[in-house]
Write a structure and sequence with these properties.
With 480 residues, the protein is α/β, with parallel strands linked by helices. Among the domains are: 156 residues, Rossmann fold (3-Layer(aba) Sandwich), CATH 3.40.50.2300; 119 residues, 2-Layer Sandwich (Transcription Regulator spoIIAA), CATH 3.30.750; 56 residues, OB fold (Dihydrolipoamide Acetyltransferase, E2P) (Beta Barrel), CATH 2.40.50.140. Helices cover 37% and strands 21% of the residues. Strands 2-1-3-4-5-6 form a six-stranded parallel β-sheet, sandwiched between helices. Strand 17 and strand 18 form a beta hairpin. The N terminus is likely disordered. The protein binds S-adenosyl-L-homocysteine (SAH), iron/sulfur cluster (SF4) and FE3-S4 cluster. Iron/sulfur cluster binds next to helix 8. The site of FE3-S4 cluster has 13 residues, from helix 3 and helix 8.
Length: 480
């Protein structure tokens, strides 16, 4: 492991230096081709991370970035298909873009991401103002597609790839704080959860070369970043068998997720490491022991349960049952006693009975989640569930069950946060609090947001905060 890290240290990071130059270029108002793009992202962290790859590809073409939509020559929207509402939001935004385009006919509009992949050329038929449609694995072709579109032709590339990981592209960070950054470690998903559109929009699972991941983490650290989040739809199934060998069933796994975590943790003890998302069927004790071993790997696991009922989980094709999930929670509590746990929950999946719903509520009590992302089921065309089951839980029932789940989570969050009063936590100072200029906010290892008076500290510092009060969303305290 150390040999590999030394090797990476020695390598000259041309890509990274290029990245710095591009960042400088982006800060200048005029650059090379005199054109500017504006990008808006929806959906999961991976989509936001992809937008940073797209920014890098465009910057190499001489595009500058604009944060004001009216100053742009090209508007890009990186879209999400996970629920119908996510798609409706994008359609609404397109109407706004259309109004801008009416005033400025030279304006180009591009749709990227999961909706582009799901709808393909249908998008160009449905939304006349759109000039280019680009799927998540086709961003390298953006320059040619833009060129085509400038010539008056609509550009589309929605080919999915088995290899593309954009490993050699230095993302241009679009986040503002310069302290916390995302690193994509894999793409796609090979699970077939019956409700989920992701395997169709993102294609087959593939892991990125770990050397390039460590390199990216090191580069971020050297630029002042103090936290990286390793991203994948199912990070626990990260596996690297070597360049060109990852499809080879016989080849031995050279780096698994636990080992990758360790490699990134060793970049620097001052660099916090987070990751998302873990899949209950794949998270191993090995990963848990690695988290416990390194102080800079955060004690926080996002472990989506979806449902607390074995029969519902079976229809969801999640490939674990209630007992298995409870066993994973027990393992987390045993190996990392101070670990924060959060979840995703779906209310009102096909055929869900009242008993099954109650099992979800009791599972939430069992796991004592600190936080949950909660949704009611939204049928997605083409998924296993859409083909096999009927979306038969009435909307009213879905909403009522969701409200009960949300209420349960509020109680749990409040209870858990109240238990933190009187404790002292190490916090990474992330930004000035939105509500009060005299306060900072940052998170503890367990991912809880903590607010405290600024004192003489700076963004990017680590401080110890004594917790004095709490509500269901945040903790408040003072630096000790
Ligand atoms: N890979 C992650 C989830 C990615 S999608 C995992 O396996 O946990 C994020 C969340 O959106 C899912 O966990 C699920 O709770 C929710 N979701 C996905 N499809 C949905 C649908 N059709 N209706 C409602 N919620 C959905
Ligand atoms: Fe979707 Fe399941 Fe893959 Fe998560 S693991 S992205 S829910 S198919
Ligand atoms: Fe949405 Fe695609 Fe992410 S569907 S949740 S943006 S992978």
């Amino acid at each position: 492991m150390n040999e590999l890290l030394d090797y990476i240290e020695q390598k000259k990071h041309d890509e990274n230096r290029q990245g710095e130059a591009l960042n400088l270029a982006l800060n200048e108002s005029e650059y090379k081709n005199n054109k500017h793009f504006y990008i808006e992202s929806y959906g999961c962290d991976m989509n936001f991370s992809d937008s940073e790859i797209v920014a890098s590809i465009l910057a190499k073409q001489g595009y500058g970035i604009k944060t004001n939509i009216f100053d742009a020559d090209l508007i890009l929207v990186n879209t999400c298909s996970i629920r119908e509402k996510a798609e409706q939001t994008v359609r609404q935004r397109l109407r706004t873009f259309n109004q801008i385009k009416e005033q400025k006919p030279s304006l180009m509009v591009g749709v990227l991401g999961c909706m582009a992949e799901r709808l393909k050329s249908k998008f160009l038929e449905e939304e006349k103002l759109v000039d280019i449609v680009v799927g998540p694995d086709a961003y390298r072709s953006l320059p040619e597609l833009l060129h085509e579109a400038e010539g008056g032709q609509k550009g589309i590339n929605v080919l999915l790839s088995r290899e593309e990981t954009y490993a050699d592209i230095s993302p241009i960070r679009l986040d503002k704080n310069g302290i916390t950054g995302f690193i994509s470690i894999m793409r796609g998903c090979d699970n077939m959860c019956s409700f989920c559109v992701v395997p169709f929009t993102r294609g087959r699972e593939r892991s990125r070369n770990p050397e390039t991941i460590v390199e990216e983490a090191r580069d971020l650290f050297n630029r002042g970043y103090r936290e990286v989040t390793l991203l994948g739809q199912n990070v626990d199934s990260f596996k690297w068998k070597g360049e060109g060998k990852n499809d080879d069933k016989e080849a031995a796994i050279l780096v698994n997720f636990a080992q990758l975590l360790e490699m990134v943790a060793l970049v620097n003890p001052l660099l916090r490491v987070r990751f998302s998302t873990s899949h209950p069927k794949d998270i191993t004790d090995d990963v848990l022991h690695t988290i416990a071993k390194y102080n800079n790997i955060c004690s926080y696991i996002h472990l989506p349960v979806q449902s607390g009922s074995s029969s519902c989980l079976e229809r969801m094709n999640r490939t674990y049952d209630r007992d298995w999930y409870m066993n994973r929670v027990d393992a987390i509590r045993r190996i990392i006693p101070d670990c924060g746990i959060s979840s995703d929950v779906i209310a009102g999946f096909c055929d869900e009975t009242e008993e099954e719903h109650l099992e979800t509520l009791s599972m939430m009590d069992y796991a004592q989640y600190d936080y949950s992302y909660m949704f009611y089921y939204s049928e997605r065309p083409g998924t296993l569930a859409a083909r096999k089951y009927t979306d038969n839980v009435p909307l009213e029932t879905k909403k009522r069950r969701l409200a009960e789940i949300v209420e349960k989570q509020y109680q749990l969050s409040l209870q858990n946060n109240l238990k933190d009063i009187g404790k002292t936590y190490e916090v990474l100072v992330e930004k000035i609090s939105k509500k009060n200029e005299a306060e900072y906010c940052g998170r503890n290892s367990q991912n809880k947001m903590i607010i405290f008076p600024k004192g003489n500290y700076n963004i990017g510092d680590y401080v110890n905060v004594y917790i004095e009060s709490a509500n269901k969303a945040t903790l408040k305290g003072r630096v000790v």
